[in-house]
Hints:
The chain is α+β, with helices and mostly antiparallel strands. It folds into 2 domains: about 1-55; about 65-240, no CATH class. About 25% of the residues lie in helices and about 35% in strands. The protein contains 2 helices and 14 strands, in the order H-E-E-E-E-E-E-E-E-E-E-H-E-E-E-E. The protein has helices spanning about 1-55, 190-195; strands at about 65-70, 85-90, 95-100, 105-110, 120-125, 135-145, 150-160, 170, 175-180, 190, 195-200, 210, 220-230, 230-240. The strands form 3 sheets. Strands 3, 4, 5, 7, 8, 9 and 13 form a 7-stranded mixed sheet that branches. A 5-stranded mixed sheet has the order 2-1-14-6-10. A two-stranded antiparallel sheet has the order 11-12. The protein starts with a helix and ends in a 7-residue tail after the last strand.
Amino acid sequence: MLVSRRHVYVYPIAVAFFAVVLAGCSEQLAATEYEEVAANDALIQSLSNQLLTKTGNGAPSGPHYNLNLIGVPKDKTAAMDDNNGHRIFVKLEGKSKILLAEGETFQVLDANGTDGNGARFQLPNPDPDNDGLTVYSVYARALGTPGGSGTITTCATSDPDETVEGDEEEVCSVTALYVERTSGRQKFMNVSNYLLYVYADLDGDGTAERYNLFNDALEDYLWSYDNQGLKLVQLRFYEEVTDVN
Length: 245
């Protein structure tokens, strides 16, 4: 009877003990499983965000300013200043200049880049601290019928001695943007380092330094466009940071 009583009293205690142990293990397993699920969810969300930030044409999604550089076979003669459009006409063959003006917004000021005076385009300072981190980014792609190419070089004027009139000289970046209209679907590429900076050796030490657009070290910034039959270059400006370092 004593043995029976011991079994009667010990058995519920053992059951309760193992129940507590199993419950604890279940909670640990549940917590571990929850952490894994949460981690997987975070990973999936991160990947989804990455996919959503790029469109199928290679450009980011979201608001942007669109600018079309249109190559034309004949020079334009009409006045195109104070233009509210999003296009600039350039020579289909040969060189055109797009003079750059600093402003708070993106705006075409003169759409005619074929008259010898140069088109004019306003845009903000892309890197006020010249630390290699842009406050906006520019993407480019070639469109139109297949064939043709173009080279866009960012240039400026150097005036080492402002007291001497006529001492200015044009300084162009040692890097340039080359665009070509190939067959098939054309995708955007980030060209911020080509169009928002001048890389030039101003101090004569044999190494090209980086100067952001509208840096005080230079003046009269512009894009020099050498077109070889390219009918359309599309530029897009996004509020996106690009590290050009």
